[in-house]
Design brief:
Structural class: alpha/beta
Helix content: 25-40%
Largest sheet: 12 strands, mixed
Shape: globular
Radius of gyration: 20 Å
Oligomer: single chain
Order of helices and strands: HHHEHEEHEHHEHEHEHEEEEEEE
Length: 324
Amino acid sequence: MTDKIFNIHSTEEFNQVALEVFKHQFKNNKVYRSFCDLLYIHPSDISKVEDIPFLPIQFFKSKKVIASLEQEQAVFTSSGTTGSTTSKHFVTDVNLYKESYLKGFDYFYGNIEDYTVLALLPNYLERTGSSLVFMVDDLIKKSKQSESGFYLNNLQELAKKLLELDAKGQKVLLIGVSFALLDLIDLHQFDLKNTIVMETGGMKGRRKELVREELHKILKSGFGVDEIHSEYGMTELLSQGYSKGNGVFNTPPWMQILTRDTEDALSINPHGKNGGINVIDLANYNSCSFIATQDLGKVYADNSFEIIGRFDNSDIRGCNLMVL
């Protein structure tokens, strides 16, 4: 099945594989099956992707969402405020995750060995179970560049390394959480020519939240770059979307974004209409590939998408109430 998932070349192939994955997860994922049963939905009722039920992401906080009898090889956990319930993603095949993010990176950026990877993810490094740290750590190793590595609070050292590598024409991927990137440009102003600056979102309570346009404007000025790239990923997914600027994301061929009506969680919106973000991630073959997130956004006719905010608890309606 993984050969099919990672060799999708058309919308028709995606739809066909997605329907196969749905049948597999309906049969083998007890949590997802119970959810479908509550909605009186059976695979015999489903003829197109838009009709597949999307599991509210909150289930990952309270249930073991798994579609395999294999023992989990890793458990990825979300970050959360003190005392809050975190999501857990039980991964029975870590190689599936590796294949997804390595093929995804190659799809958008080319061979990882062409880059020196500098990672500024202090809040993620300060806890265990981060799927982002797992991915970036592997990208650092796969880059085969001796100067690739993580940085925690040693911003002076990072600034020096960044200037040195960029000046000699080395392609650099600087991937960091928003507040840490802002801390870096507070320390030093750059004029980078060979560096991709990629933010992974979030102030994590360390700074005032900024709208994307304002954040990217400040980062572009501070790093001296034309665009700020972004990564869209989460604990509950094994694939990522990427934006090369303007906050417009694209997905690899085995991942697709839809939006749902905010008043009717089972209705899929047409292109261009704001709604709740639904993710199809076929790499989630052994857990759940059809997830209704708490993000708000819109999908364009070319299947690119934009994130415009998040639901608050009072906005969660429809089938999401089945979580309670």
